[in-house]
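Q: Sequence in, structure out?
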Amino acid sequence: MEKVSLEVKAPEEGDEMKWVLDSSVDHKDRVPLRASTGSWKAALFIIAIETSERLSYFGIATSLVLYLTKVMHQELKTAARNVNYWAGVTTLMPLFGGFIADAYLGRYSTVLASCFVYLIGLVLLTLSWFLPSLKPCGDTNMCTEPRRIHEVVFFLAIYLISIGTGGHKPSLESFGADQFDEDHDEERKQKMSFFNWWNCALCSGLIVGVTLIVYIQDNINWGAADIIFTVVMAFSLLIFIIGRPFYRYRVPTGSPLTPMLQVLFAAISKRKLPYPSNPDQLYEVPKYNSNNRRFLCHTNKLKFLDKAAIIVDDGSSAEKQSPWNLATVTKVEEMKLIINIIPIWVSTIPFGMCVAQTATFFVKQGTQLNRKIGNGFEIPPASIFTVAALGMVVSVAIYDKILVPVLRRLTQNERGINILQRIGFGMLFSIATMIVAALVEKKRLEAVERDPFKGSLTMSVFWLAPQFLIIGFGDGFTLVGLQEYFYDQVPDSMRSLGIAFYLSVIGAASFLSSMLITVVDHMTKKSGKSWFGKDLNSSRLDKFYWLLAAIATVNLFLFVFVARRYSYKNVQKLAVADCYEGKSDCEGAETKV
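A: Exactly. Output:
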């Protein structure tokens, strides 16, 4: 959506049930009619394109380490690093895409533009397999290393997909959540379920990607799978465009970074002024001039920033003063929100490092185990990832349909439990995953030592099922919780960036995982034998998993420490003089975990 000028007759009292008064607009730039826009009727179009995009992404991501080792003949540690670098870029690019969506293009337009970039990447990926001049091995199907042109085009294609994901992922998810009005009781509860069922749709795409698509990659060729990705993505984009009349749109308001810089500049320039005795004396936009925006309650944390909202009598009215000299309480509190999420962001990275192993070492382990079932049917290595997706679907369904209703009655909390409690509970599963993975890998190495000829083929691939299932349960709590947390706790004008912050956790974790592999490889080489050999049988992944379990355990204590001191976003609909800590006009007390 482009920026528009809204000239709408103010709805009369009681019209909240008929009209959506959360500052969103319909596709004709009018106040949306509740009955014909938004809610699940719009969200289903959005979920459809997410399912197809995840099919493509996971079809590529879960088999990428196999492609790099089998087709490009890279060593395991080199392939693992390349996968982590790609995953890191893919999950950090949304920071840029989310900023563009919030500040300039709007979420709908950003999704459209990024989908076209994504499609170009998929087309290039397909051509790199079928076009004779771009094939990995030229006219022959056997070669010791791929042609240089294939490497260039292949990596260009997957990084174009990264760029497409950078705009698509944060914009689409926040655009889907925008379809629910937080000021409407029924839609607010639907929004709490949205993130749960969004991830169920994500898992549906994942399951198809790591079963049917991976089977095609293994038994037909990689190019056939690329054609499916391209066709499905183009078709789902068409469905997304058809849903345009049903969507609610947020008008971009310019760079969300500018107000934060204004708050910081104003606070520093007025640093010598005394604090007012009463928070009522801090400046806020009058209610009659609010334009349906949401106000935030004043908090006593990071009080230095409050000085930005102190009114200095310079002869002009407060409304006419420069925003670089005077900020509203809401803008000050939004700055505090961003500062407060930094410790939470940092303390969730080790969980992401555990998740990063599923697409690299976990999948590679599957290639070394017996994958035959029934009458000789062989399961593709990446298909074991289905177990993680099923674990996530089961945990989300149990949480949304059983735990939340029960916990609502017990805690009187609309969410059942606080978001950070949900995230912390999921972290326990990541620790358990690494412990189980270490024990299974130790058993596999013992099997190789007993029978070097058959090696670990005496073990079924389903030995890996527990570690995938447990991390799936953890994802259902922590990853879904992180999505909801970063969407809900950032300023309203930064919600695409909020989803990008969540994705950047996984991106930063992927980069740190690669760095950890490099550091551990270097240190263990010096002490004798590296934990990362040329292949799995000459490696000691079990020790690496124990190291990750230890890191995740220590980090859990850090997360609990940070979470217990966290204050949640506190929204009001009145001016700041009517609402501050301790007053009932706030939509929720500053609940702590």
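Strands lie at 295-296, 372-373, 377-378, 571-572.
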